[in-house]
Amino acid sequence: MRLLAAVSTMALGFLLGLGHDAQACSLSDRQLTIQLEPRSAELGAQNARVLAEWFLQWRDGLGIESLIVVAPAVKSQKGIADERLHNVARIFERLNIGKAPIAYEVEVRGDSFPDVKYLNSLDVSVQPACIKSGTCCQGGNTISR
What we know:
The chain has helices spanning about 1-15, 45-60, 80-95, 115-120, 130-135, and strands spanning about 30-35, 65-75, 100-110, 120-130, 135-140, 140.
């Protein structure tokens, strides 16, 4: 999660550092959360399809500068989180033809962490390629340097 926060901070810093003439645009759907079955590393066909379609939308749309996949877990179930990340990596490896860097991180919580829904999820966040190049747009408003 620390890496996710760092990526978000970098993007925000970049947008705030733009000149006064630039117009900020909203990049919706930069984060995807997938709910999984408790104590299972399986993604399931529906979740695999959602992940693949989301990735392709970014890859073939604004492009991907980098990606981070975070799997929260309690200490005693870190192995399941590792397997979940491995399963996501198998999907993204085949689709990542541009070889964008992808970080995979297990966010370990104490065994008494109460938010079971959170523990049975995966968070995927994209840093769009257009952020780096300053060419992001939404509704005709282009961000330029």
